[in-house]
Every structure is written in C-alpha cells, then in structure tokens.
Write a structure and sequence with these properties.
507 residues, 19 helices, binds 5'-O-[(L-methionyl)-sulphamoyl]adenosine
Length: 507
C-alpha cells in the first residue's frame, strides 16, 4: 500500500484566541488534505496546540487561571473554530498530552545518551515574549538590548543549561538543502536558509531555568524544556514515535516522514534547520517539504491585539459563510506571499466570482432545466464540445497546481471554466434554440450540467459544504471523485433551486 500522505499545520500558541492568520494555515492544510483524499490517497492530517512556556503562563496569570485550565479554554476555541470551518483533521495533538510529554522526555534521554545533548552554561540575552535567546550579533542597534523580533527589552541571563549539538549537523544539512531543491517552498526562501547554515550554526540551548510551565528535563528535573524543542516533536509524538522506538511498532513508519509541513514565513527557520537536525540525530527521515506561506496584514501592518486590528474569523463567517472565507483566503493572494486584508476586497471577490459567476451559472442553468425539461437531465447524444475540451484542460491544470501547492492557480483555473460556461450560455442562447431546435437544447443543457458537475467536484476541497450543495442541486448525491466529464448521468432530477451565494450589498 502507498505511504500515507502526512500533512501538518503548526501547533498554535494558546495565549490568545485564534484569528484569521491561524485559520489561514489550517484552511490551506485542510484543502490539500481534502484534495489528496479526493484523488484516492490515504491522508493523515495533524493539527494541535503549543501550550507550554512563559507566554502562556503569563496569559493564564492575567486571567487568574492555572495554565492548564486556561489552555483547556483556548483549545476549545480552536476546536470550535475548526469545526465551524469544516477542518477535517485526523488528530489533534496538545503538547500537554501525556503521550507528547513522555515522547519529548524520551527524546531528550536518547540524545543525551548519544552525546547530541550535553550540559553547558548559557550566558547571554533572553527575550521573554519570544522565548528565545538573542545573540549580540543579532541586535538591530548594537548599544540597545532590544529584541530584534518583538522590540521588547531583553533580559541578561547566566545559567546551567543543556544544549543540542546543532553545529554537528551543519554540513549534512547543507548537503540536504543542495540535494533537495524542493524541500523549502517557495524556492526563493531557500537561499536565506542556506546562507544561515553556511555562516555557521551554533548549538541550541534547549532548557530553561526560569520557566515553570513546561515539560521537565529528565536529566535535571528543576529545568523545563525550551518550548520550540518541545513543540517540534509534536509531529512525531502524535503518530506513535514512542511505540515505534520502544516496541518496534512500525505503524509510525506508515505515516512518517511528513509529506508537507505547512508553516508561516516567520517559523520556517525552526522547521528547516532545527527540526531536520533533531530528526537526523534520531536517525529518522526528513520531511519531504516545508511550505512557508505569506502573512495577512491589515492596511500594511502586522495584525496584533495591541493594535486592535486582528480579524476575527467569525465576523466574516457570520456574514459571508465559512466557505466564502476558505475561498477568499486562498484565492485573493498567491500562497507564498503576503496579502493585505480588506473588507472591500473580500466583498468584491465574493460578489464578482461567487455570486456573479459561480452562483449565477448554477441559477441560470437550473432555471432553464426547470423550464425546458421539467428539471430532468434528458438523454441526448454526447459529443465533444468546447466545454468538454476546456473541462479536460482545467482538470489537468488544477491537479498540477494542487500538487505544487498553488491554490491560487488551482482556483483561477476553476473560475476560467465557470466564465467559459457563462459565455457558452450567451453564445448558444438556449431560449432561442427552444423555439427552433428543441432537440439541440438537450445537448446544450447536458454540456452545461456535465461541466458544472466538474466545477463542483473541483471545488470540493476548497468549499466542501457549497460544493456538496452544488452536486445535490444537479441531482447527484454523494462525493463525486471520477473527474470524467461524460459521467454526468442522464435522468438525474435537479434539486429545489436555491441561491448559492446571495449578492452582498455594500452598506
Ligand atoms: N507555536 C508556534 C508553532 C510551533 S510549530 C511546531 C507558532 N504558533 S502561532 O500560533 O504563533 O502561529 C501559528 C501559525 O499561524 C504560523 O504558521 C503563522 O504564520 C500563522 N499566522 C499567525 N498570524 C498570521 C497572519 N497574520 N497571517 C498569516 N499567518 C499567520 O508559531
């Protein structure tokens, strides 16, 4: 049997409620998971939450709650949102799950015994908010101890710590990058990583003395494990690494290595330098791909709670529906680059493509079917035509794009097919045919309906609920997967006509 296609999202910090940025990574992962399931692959889709560390401890304190109780509350918000957005994950890992904690501790022990983790002293600057040590060389203004990422003040620390020998894997990592040009996408991001590796990797401090809320270091129980070292391991703790290591249960190998780790552009460094090195140290295969997507900003600025410009997914879902949100996020901007979020562009995209093109195609054709053939797809001779030809091209283009994780292009190709179908209606003018060639109208309507079945099918991963509704409107139930234009059955009887995407009038 084929290896299971393994897709992951990052695990989300639970110091605040999920916003549109978190939804973005998860929706993208879900679309790819649904696509691969649709073409018949076994898929394992993992998501979860990153629950340890100072930031979470602080947020819990502010809310006067123990960290775990606080975590449970935010995790529920994530799970609720994923349910509303139809996220079809197969497993949800929390870093507070017992299996995860055990796995992290085991891995620290394994690497300590191997000599890849060793005891040393850390002296330097630390950013509490980012939970990261900052090198003097990384300071933006050499005289000022300010975090280069979040611009908060840094703290000077000196402490006994344990280090992971990242430097040992530098050359192997470089070779890996050079041999696997597709490892990090979009490819323009690879150069930066290669430069970082070439400049020299220093060993990574993986323990914290001052952070209480975390997994205890099995070698020195007074310390906790650095959140990033803890978090990255979720990708294997969730799929049975411990059982594989301790009991030789090889279910793990049916899923690992990951086929794609979806991450935002600010965290691919962790996924393409630290994570592969940990895997090499464990003797495991490396992920096939890490995709670093762009960011959604608001009026050119990073969304943040303090600026009050965070977009709440529910504000959009409640007005436009979940599928419109899924569609918009992947349609508006190519996946690798940043996008500026605005209500105007959402409304324009919704009205022009969902209401005017897709919605309109369905309502026009269904109304004609009611009028000219009693709502039945009548038998007729099936002959190649512009719509059958174009459908075949689009199916090819769509598959190629999905496999390149190019959602933007995949959706564009569907929209092209919709536009050509609408134009076909104008060109054929069935209302005229009805009077002169009543027989010809059967084929024209068949050609349209067969194409609309393909359109709905291609939309299934992107807008699962609406696509299901489209198929029902065409009188076919179930999940269509065949991608054969001619397979639209005769005698299907269309469903009750509904408006798929009511036009939104700007207030
Ligand atoms: N906990 C870490 C990931 C550990 S993975 C082993 C983390 N969590 S996060 O909650 O801060 O972010 C998770 C994801 O949300 C990232 O992929 C990030 O890029 C994405 N987004 C958060 N805000 C975003 C936008 N404004 N726009 C697009 N995505 C962004 O990092």
């Amino acid at each position: 049997m084929d290896k299971t296609f393994f897709i992951t999202t990052p695990i989300y910090y639970i110091n605040a409620r999920p916003h549109i940025g978190h939804a973005y990574t998860t929706i993208a992962s879900d679309v790819l998971a649904r696509y691969y399931r649709m073409i018949g692959k076994n898929v394992f889709f993992l998501t979860g939450t990153d629950e340890h560390g100072q930031k979470v401890e602080n947020s819990a304190q502010k809310n006067s709650m123990p960290p775990k109780v606080f975590a449970d509350m935010i995790v529920k918000e994530y799970k609720d949102l994923w349910k509303v957005l139809d996220i079809s994950y197969d497993a949800f890992i929390r870093t507070t799950d017992e299996i995860h904690e055990k796995t992290v501790r085991k891995i620290v022990e394994i690497l300590y015994e191997k000599g890849d983790i060793y005891k040393g002293k850390y002296k330097g600057l630390y950013c509490i908010a980012c939970e990261s040590y900052v090198l003097e060389t990384d300071l933006e203004d050499k005289g000022k101890e300010i975090c280069p990422d979040c611009h908060r003040e840094l703290k000077a620390v000196e402490e006994d710590s344990y280090f992971f020998k990242l430097s040992k894997y530098q050359n192997r990592l470089l070779e890996f990058f050079e041999r696997n040009k597709e490892f990090l996408s979009p490819s323009f991001r690879s150069k930066e990583m290669i430069n970082i590796i070439k400049n020299g990797l220093i060993d990574l401090c993986i323990t914290r003395n001052t952070v209480e809320w975390g997994i205890k270091n099995p070698i020195d129980e007074k310390q906790t494990i650095y959140v990033w070292f803890d978090a990255l391991i979720n990708y294997i703790s969730a799929i049975g690494f411990l059982d594989f290591y301790e009991k030789k249960n090889d279910n793990f190998l049916k899923i690992w290595p990951a086929d794609i780790h979806f991450v935002g552009k600010e965290i691919y460094k962790f996924h393409t330098i630290i994570w592969p090195s940990i895997l090499m140290a464990l003797g495991l295969e490396l992920p096939k791909k890490v995709f670093g997507h762009g960011w959604w900003v608001f009026a050119g600025e990073k969304m943040s709670k303090s600026k009050g410009n965070v977009i709440d997914p529910y504000d959009i879902i409640n007005v436009f529906g979940k599928d419109a949100l899924r569609y918009f996020l992947l349609r508006e901007v190519p996946f690798g680059i940043d996008g500026d979020f605005s209500m105007d562009s959402l409304i324009d995209r919704y009205n022009s493509e969902l209401a005017n093109e897709i919605g309109n195609l369905f309502s026009r054709v269904l109304k004609m079917l009611e009028k000219y053939s009693n709502g039945i797809i009548l038998e007729c001779k099936i002959e190649p035509n512009i719509l059958s030809e174009k459908s075949k091209e689009v199916i090819k283009e769509y598959k190629k794009s999905m496999e390149k994780v190019d959602f933007y292009n995949a959706i564009s190709s569907i929209v092209d097919l919709v536009k050509i179908s609408n134009k076909y209606i104008e060109d054929m003018a069935p209302w005229k045919l009805a009077k002169i060639y009543p027989d010809k109208i059967k084929s024209v309507l068949y050609n349209l309906v067969a194409t609309m079945r393909i359109i709905a099918m291609l939309l299934q991963p992107i807008m699962p609920e609406k696509a299901g509704q489209m198929l029902k409107l065409l009188g076919i139930s179930g999940k269509e997967k065949d991608f054969v234009w001619e397979n639209m059955p005769f005698n299907a009887s269309i469903g009750k006509i509904e408006v798929l995407f009511p036009r939104y009038e700007k207030k």
